[in-house]
Design a protein that fits this description.
Structural class: mainly alpha
Strand order of the largest sheet: 7-6-8
Shape: elongated
Strand content: under 5%
Helix content: 40-55%
Number of helices: 38
Number of strands: 9
Largest sheet: 3 strands, antiparallel
């Protein structure tokens, strides 16, 4: 009964606020206190403060909305100063936090209101105290007061952290003199002590982080822009030196995420018996962390970050002089992590969480499965991008395979689901980044013995085989929106190919099947860029033949079996009539590569399309492969030398690829499935011509393969006739002991396409990250039904 009375009082206060025609004075504490003294849940706040009423107050009584925001922030500032000594004050903090979380999105969606929190409020000083006689220039914007109060409250003894005080100490004095580095939430980077778990502290931290995330979400209400100078003012201030808690906050968020163990002692079904307050905190901490690590490629901060990477760890003198590198201290601290035990803790934490959904048990659904794998992949990406020491640490041992297997699992699982196109993209981008390093290719030779439930052919082989088999699945049975990723997928295979010591027969056949499909005349001639896919695959075969011939008899045998594919490519007719005939031969309705092999698969259900009614966020277009990679040639001593871009290069892809952005924003475009790379072809109607075909056909790198066929085919045919062989194992044995030393053309230099940070992918990541955060925060639905402009939310 008491609870319903509380809700009634709160609802009455909301109605009074929306119906009052005259502004309510800021000094009328009796009126304003109704909003934060009641004990109501976050769900009640969202239900009792409807969107329509917030918008009505915003339009009809703007001064009342402004005063409500000011008073709520004022109460948070007062609580941060006093140290929340009483239960009543703690309840006020939680209620003000929930109310601001509810209201802020409606402030952001209106361009006229967006600057409100950055306007100065009389009486709010830079020093944090409230003083009516303060000079206007000394006043602090409301946003800054709010962010600093939240930061203080995240290290408030007995509210969000365990108190270390001796009895009799004044809470206000304690919070003013607190060294928050002694109150880091979890052991890990820079902190050895693990504080006892406290359910209530975790809930309070979660509420404050939710408000922080809502503050940062102003970015969702601005249209996409590739301008790297546009920074999020909320993130910029919160992660600046103005916030005295940046270092302990960064380490607290990072350690809480990387130190989380969802399985615990492994008691079956424990997640159904007990609620886990830590999981909610981990999700919120992870989302705040990935948003706060905001850093644009090409900015002055980027140059500083690269300089920081190139230098050794900072000396004591350098640290005294102040932080070099980016102004965003979260990015700065992340880029400086260098101790082996810290890097190991981070990598172990991320791999353990990413592998969690792959855990198999005899009892169905007996183990908790986390749902925040997309945010973890974004965090891993940011670590690799901002801290080269971390990237080299990952590639230094076979631990990188602990990252690879879950990424391949997610690619395979999400390939047919258009609501998870973004997940496939980020997985591919991470693998592209890793594939630019020699160590990644070398590590892939480790045998794959794990049995993860995936609908892929059963094979005995290495992690490289697993990668090729899953890439083949994504290409042949993925959603059509993944077509723009074909270049990326094949670039990864090209990058690792010089280091692959022994491909299995299954993987070799998959590569040949892709060449067969991509070199079909109707496919080659139906779009301006399709021939690049053939160039990539020929480069893969050439790399393996020239550098890893000895262990790859399976691939050599597959090439010999499919030799007609190479002969057809070499003899592709270039006259106009043949081009027209080839295009007419295309089967109606065939819009993607189809795999014809029916194989035994691992015990798993096949990838399924999105459920009808599922929500998805639109994505920006990703730049073409030539825009996101730079070529590097591997010299004899193993070092890489950057190769200048050549316009006539056979495997350079021009133009941006169409992921899903424009077709999603334009309803007309959404009705007709668009072909791959349509952003290029739609500008002017393109058709294949003899000159165009000749321009690339003469550059097909077929010499090495043709020489191999010229030497080996007669030998294989002779041995089959002489010995009457019908069993392929005997032929493979012959090929294993064969050699082509001195018979092949001079080996070409190894060419690696390394990922290059650029404004296009930075914009894609920002859109993807906020889309994930929007869709994951449904209880309460913080941004639901507000005027988001960074992306569109669509129902499938």
């Amino acid at each position: 009964m008491g609870n319903s009375d509380t809700k009634l009082h709160f609802r009455k206060a909301v109605i009074q606020l929306t119906t009052k025609t005259q502004p309510v004075e800021a000094t009328d504490d009796a009126f304003w206190d109704q909003f934060w003294t009641s004990a109501i849940s976050v769900q009640d706040v969202f239900a009792l403060v409807p969107a329509a009423e917030i918008r009505a107050v915003r339009e009809e009584s703007p001064s009342n909305l402004a005063t409500l925001c000011f008073k709520a922030v004022e109460r948070l500032v007062q609580a941060a100063d006093s140290g929340c000594p009483s239960e009543k004050e703690r309840r006020i903090v939680v209620n003000c936090t929930r109310l601001l979380t509810r209201i802020l999105p409606y402030i952001f969606e209106d361009a006229d209101w967006r600057g409100f929190f950055w306007s100065t409020i009389p009486g709010a000083s830079r020093g944090g105290c409230l003083d009516e006689d303060l000079d206007e220039n000394e006043a602090r914007p409301l946003a800054e007061s709010l962010l600093l109060a939240v930061a203080d409250l995240l290290f408030c003894p007995d509210f969000t952290v365990q108190s270390h005080k001796k009895s009799g100490t004044d809470p206000a004095e304690e919070i003013r003199s607190i060294d928050s580095c002694e109150y880091i939430w979890e052991a890990g980077v820079g902190f050895a002590h693990s504080p006892p778990l406290n359910y209530v502290h975790d809930l309070h931290r979660t509420e404050l982080l939710k408000l922080l995330l809502t503050c940062f979400s102003e970015a969702m209400y601005l249209p996409p822009s590739s301008d790297s100078k546009v920074i999020n003012p909320w993130v910029a201030f919160f992660c600046s030196a103005e916030n005295r808690h940046t270092l302990p906050l960064f380490t607290s968020l990072l350690n809480v995420v990387c130190g989380y163990d969802p399985v615990g002692y492994g008691v079956p079904y424990n997640h159904l018996l007990f609620s886990d307050s830590r999981e909610q905190l981990v999700e919120q901490a992870l989302q705040v962390l990935v948003v706060a690590l905001e850093h644009e490629a090409g900015s002055p901060a980027s140059a500083a970050l690269q300089a920081l990477d190139a230098s050794a760890s900072p000396t004591a003198d350098e640290e005294e002089r102040g932080p070099a590198g980016p102004d965003n201290l979260f990015v700065n601290y992340l880029s400086r992590i260098h101790r082996e035990e810290d890097l190991s803790f981070i990598l172990r934490g991320l791999t353990q969480l990413l592998n969690n959904p792959l855990i198999q048990t005899y009892l169905p659904r007996s183990t908790k499965k986390i749902q925040f794998h997309q945010e973890l992949l974004i965090l891993f990406w940011k670590f690799c991008d901002f801290n080269k020491k971390f990237l080299f640490f990952v590639l230094k041992s076979s631990d990188v395979l602990e990252m690879l297997v879950p990424i391949l699992f997610y690619l395979n699982d999400a390939r047919a689901d258009q609501s998870r196109v973004g997940l496939v993209h980020i997985g591919v981008f991470i693998l592209l980044l890793l594939s630019g390093e020699r160590n990644f290719g070398v590590r892939l030779n480790k045998p794959y013995t794990l049995r993860v439930p995936m609908d892929i052919p059963v094979f005995t082989g290495t992690h490289a085989d697993l990668l090729i088999v899953i890439f083949h699945k994504v290409i042949t049975s993925g959603h059509q929106r993944l077509h723009p990723l074909f270049d990326c997928l094949l670039t990864i295979i090209v990058n690792i190919s010089p280091y692959l010591k022994s491909l299995s027969m299954v993987a070799a056949n998959k590569l040949l099947h892709l060449l067969e499909a991509f070199s079909a005349p109707w496919f080659l001639l139906s779009a301006q860029q399709h021939h690049h896919l053939v160039f990539f695959l020929l480069e893969v075969f050439n790399n393996i033949i020239q550098y890893q011939f000895d262990g790859n008899s399976n691939l050599v045998y597959a090439i010999i079996r499919k030799r007609n594919v190479f002969h057809q490519l070499a003899n592709l007719p270039t006259d106009k009539e043949s081009i027209q005939n080839a295009l007419q031969r295309k089967k109606p309705g065939v819009s993607r590569v189809n795999s014809a092999d029916g194989e035994a698969t691992e015990d798993s259900k096949p990838a399924e399309p999105a459920e009808p009614g599922a929500l998805k966020a639109s994505l920006e277009a990703t730049p073409g492969i030539d825009k996101i990679t730079e070529k590097a040639q591997v010299s004899k001593d193993g070092t890489m030398v950057t190769v200048p871009h050549s316009p006539c290069d056979g495997s350079a892809i021009d133009g941006a690829s169409d992921t899903e952005s424009n077709s999603e924003r334009d309803p007309e475009a959404r009705r007709t499935p668009r072909s791959r790379m349509s952003s290029v072809s739609s500008v002017s109607v393109w058709s294949a011509s003899p000159d165009w075909l000749l321009s690339w056909k003469t550059r097909l790198p077929l010499q090495t393969i043709m020489r191999l066929l010229q030497v080996l085919v007669p030998q294989v045919e002779k041995i089959c006739i002489d010995k009457g062989l019908t069993d392929e194992s005997e032929i493979l044995k012959f090929l294993q002991h064969g050699t082509l030393v001195g018979l092949l053309p001079v080996p070409h230099p190894i060419l690696i396409r390394k990922y290059q940070a650029n404004a296009g992918t930075a914009m894609w990541f920002r859109t993807y990250m906020w889309g994930v955060i929007y869709l994951r925060n449904v209880d309460p639905p913080i941004w639901y039904d507000t005027d988001i402009r960074l992306f569109e939310i669509q129902r499938i």
